[in-house]
């Protein structure tokens, strides 16, 4: 879906999205020229609800894979391999996307060789895969919080885990320094939403803004597509 805004709106809305339990946490902001105005975050039950939001989100950067390999023999996606190299020690948090057949099936077997995080989020990934098409990639992009923070931290990987106090503080400092009024998102109190989810969504929102303004970077720089014509890339 092409980025657009309503005929009566002087602004566009961009969004960063990350899984939160079995739902989706969405951090959004109004964008008009150099103005960036974060809105209170929301939780959506399904990915379709995000796509159906009105006014439509001009860009969505989501913490989930888009585009998949068909066989293990093809190896990991290039975007994952290159992202891990960029992030150094933090690269271990870039998981390999499951195979297309596994995602479309929505359940896994030992033969699928899924890591614990991917296995937990597989049903969420299936939601996205069933709605994606090359045309929809004009609106929806794959991102990863580690890469978003890498850019916000002046192309330096973060040092600490987001699960500990020091890691949360490290991320808050970066976000507050780089994004005006981001406290609207970081200070939100949503049932069932952890602090680390809010931090991730805020970082992905920053990437969504860069996608909208055509300032985002893509990994890999040379395009790579899956067998259904979907770009296999991560933006940051």
Which terms summarize this structure?
single chain; 236 residues; alpha/beta; six-stranded mixed sheet; disordered N terminus
SSE layout and pairing:
Elements: E1 12-20, E2 23-32, E3 35-38, E4 42-44, H1 47-51, E5 59-62, H2 78-87, H3 100-105, H4 116-131, E6 140-142, H5 145-152, H6 165-178, H7 183-186, H8 195-212, E7 218-219, E8 234-235
Parallel strand pairs: 1-5, 5-6
Antiparallel strand pairs: 1-2, 2-3, 2-4, 7-8
Helix pairs in contact: 5-8, 6-8
* Biggest sheet details: 6 strands, mixed
* Rg computed from alpha carbons, rounded to a whole number of angstroms: 17 Å
Q: Please tell me the total number of domains.
A: 1
Low-confidence stretches: 1-6
The total count of helices amounts to: 8
Number of strands: 8
Structural write-up:
The chain is of the alpha/beta class and 236 residues long. The protein has one domain. The chain has helices at 47-51, 78-87, 100-105, 116-131, 145-152, 165-178, 183-186, 195-212, and strands spanning 12-20, 23-32, 35-38, 42-44, 59-62, 140-142, 218-219, 234-235. Strands 1, 2, 3, 4, 5 and 6 form a six-stranded mixed sheet that branches. It has a two-stranded antiparallel ribbon with strand order 7-8. Strand 2 (23-32) and strand 3 form a beta hairpin. The protein is globular and about 45 Å long. Mean pLDDT is 94; it is low at 1-6.
